[in-house]
Write a structure and sequence with these properties.
Blueprint (H helix, E strand, L loop, with lengths): L6 E4 L2 E4 L10 H5 L2 E3 L2 E6 L2 E5 L1 H15 L8 H15 L4 E10 L11 E9 L9 H4 L1 E9 L16 H13 L4 E5 L5 E4 L3 E6 L2 E4 L9 H12 L4 E3 L4 H5 L3 E6 L3 E8 L2 E2 L7 H14 L6 H4 E3 L17
Parallel strand pairs: 8-9, 8-15, 12-13
Antiparallel strand pairs: 1-2, 1-7, 3-6, 4-5, 4-6, 5-17, 6-7, 9-10, 11-12, 11-14, 14-15, 15-16
The protein binds pyridoxal-5'-phosphate.
The site of pyridoxal-5'-phosphate (PLP) has 12 residues, from helix 6.
């Protein structure tokens, strides 16, 4: 898998990769009670920089809050420092970062209060999630037979590990059918998001994206809305129907893993010209410049790993929130 690194941060310490293991009876594994983040660190001329670290650390802590964890030992700022420490300890210029807060120590009666939250942070080399070719050519998607979570069944603002069984069902089906990615509709039948990406369409020079009620509030989505408005595009958040995708000029998806990728075909219908269109290209270029430290928005959104590398991580006693 190429996911190796030297160290994984586990509950306040850097642990050798092979030793970062959990017991079979860790409740998170049985009930999907964990919350996580997906973050990327990019190589820039000023060294490695984490994209929107503060927002990711805050979303992680908010996911824990939504899940009901009450005795987190670390604040968002401490987790952000631990993330930078993990990146610099592993010596990567560029990497994917995976923090995870998981229910451990007991918890067999289906409440988070029966156990304790543990925290780990892993980093690994990960280039193109949807393949190098997708960057230019775009990918082929289907509308999934699986529905995205109703927002009162699973909490869609939180990256809860158990939520992702829905993504795995949809993505597996999509790939077995010969597509690259699945688009999920919400419980009302409107377009929600993909298995790990938010979705946009362009039509008549305007950009549209579904409102956030039942999707993950993507940090890349937020960045693209800002970059699009900087470029003078009008961005409208409104419910989108399946057939509005078919007749769009362009459809594209975005996320930390996927970055910005065009959907050139949906449900065997060619979208627009059948390749990446000008709006997607402009946003993909602006996004790539931003993450490389070459855009006016870079200063605001990049957190340089070596600028003030934390020396040690304070390990507080667990406190009740
Ligand atoms: C379901 C889902 N939607 C959207 C996204 C995109 O979010 P972000 O841009 O914050 O990575 C992700 C990836 O984290 C996701 O898992």
């Amino acid at each position: 898998m190429g996911m190796e690194s030297k160290y994984i941060w586990m509950n306040g310490e850097l642990v050798e990769f092979e030793k970062a293991t959990l017991h079979f009876l860790t409740p998170a594994l049985h009930y999907g009670v964990g919350v996580f983040e997906g973050i990327r660190c990019y190589s820039t001329s000023s060294g490695p920089a984490v994209f929107r670290l503060k927002e990711h650390a805050e979303r992680l802590v908010n996911s824990a809050k939504v899940m009901g964890f009450r005795d987190l030992a670390y604040s968002a700022d401490e987790l952000a420092d631990a993330i930078k420490l993990t990146v610099s300890a592993n010596g990567f210029d560029e990497c994917y970062i995976r923090p995870l807060i998981y229910l451990t120590d007991g918890g067999w009666n289906l409440t988070v209060d029966a156990g304790k939250p543990g925290v780990g942070i892993a980093v690994w080399k990960w280039n193109n999630y949807l393949g190098a070719e997708a960057l230019e050519a775009g990918i082929r998607a289907n509308v999934s037979s699986f529905t995205r979570h109703h927002p009162n069944v699973m909490m869609t603002k939180a990256k809860i590990t158990g939520n992702y069984a829905n993504s795995v069902l949809a993505k597996t089906e999509s790939m077995r059918l010969g597509f690259d990615e699945a688009i999920l509709l919400d419980a009302h039948g409107y377009v929600a998001e993909c298995t790990g990406e938010n979705l946009f369409l362009a039509r008549g020079g305007r950009i549209y994206t579904p409102p956030t009620v039942d999707i993950l509030e993507g940090i890349t989505r937020d960045a693209l809305i800002t970059l699009a408005r900087d470029l003078g595009y009008e961005v409208v958040e409104q419910p989108i129907s399946r057939d509005q995708l078919y007749i769009a000029d362009e459809v594209f998806v975005c996320g930390t893993a996927a970055e910005v990728i065009a959907l050139r075909e949906i449900d065997l219908r060619v979208i627009g010209a059948g390749r990446m269109g000008p709006v997607t290209r402009a946003l993909q270029q602006a996004f790539h410049a931003t993450i490389r430290g070459q855009h006016p928005r870079s200063a605001e959104w990049l957190d340089y790993v070596n600028a003030e590398a934390p020396v040690s991580i304070p390990v507080r006693e667990r406190v009740s929130a």
